[in-house]
Amino acid sequence: MLAAVLLIVGLTIAAVAKSPAKMSAAERSIREFYDSYAADLRGHKRESIADRYDRRGVYLAGNGRKSLETFDKIKDRYLNDWSGPKAFIWKDLSVEVISKDSAVVSALFEWQVESGTTFTYSYTGLLIKRDGKWRIRLEDESTAPSKTSN
Q1: Residue-wise pLDDT tens digits, 105-120
Q2: Is residue 121 within 8 Å of 111, Cβ to Cβ?
Q3: Closest CA to 27 of 109, 122, 92, 93
Q4: 3-state SS class at 132
C-alpha cells in the first residue's frame, strides 16, 4: 500500500513539474532573466540591476506600501544608495506568461546581509516586454511575518 501511494505521489510530482523542453520560449527567457538578475544582485552590478526596470516607472509594493517610482529614481537608488546582499537565492520561482509581452512571476527569495543573518521574502513581479527586452513594471517584496505577529 505504501509503495502504491509513493508511486502515485511520484507520478503526480513528475506530471506537475515542467521540464525545460516543455517550457515556452517566453518562460525560458523569463527564467534566464531571473537567473541573471540573481547573479547581478550577488555581484552588486548596480547598473545592470537598474537596467531591468521599465523606463515608464515601476510600481513598488510590499509590507502594506505601494508607490509609483520613476525610472530615474530607481536608477539613482541602485547607483547611489543600495546595499547589495552577501548572498541571494530565488526559491520556488513560478512564471505565468500572460501574453507575448507580459508575464507574472511569483517566488520566495533569501537575502543574506553582511552580518550573516538571512531574511526570507515573498516576491511578485509583473514583467512587460519592451523593445525585445523584459522589464519589471511592478515589484512586490514582503518580508516573512514575525512569529509573534498575528
Answers
A1: 999 999 999 999 999 9
A2: yes
A3: 93
A4: coil
Q: CB–CB of 31/111 below 8 Å?
A: no
Residues 6+ away with beta carbon under 8 Å from 58: 68, 69, 71, 74, 136, 137, 138, 139
Q: pLDDT per residue over 59-88, tens digit each?
A: 999 999 999 999 999 999 999 999 999 999
| Burial zone of 16 (CB within 10 Å; 0-12 exposed, 13-18 middle, 19+ buried) | exposed
Helix (H, G, I), strand (E, B) or coil at 113: coil
What pTM does this model have?
A: 0.82
Which of these, 137, 141, 140, lies nearest to 53 by C-alpha position?
137
Q: What residue spans of the chain are helical by DSSP H?
A: 2-16, 25-43, 46-50, 71-76
129 contact partners, CB below 8 Å, separation of at least 6: 100, 101, 102, 135
Residues facing residue 67 across a β-bridge: 60
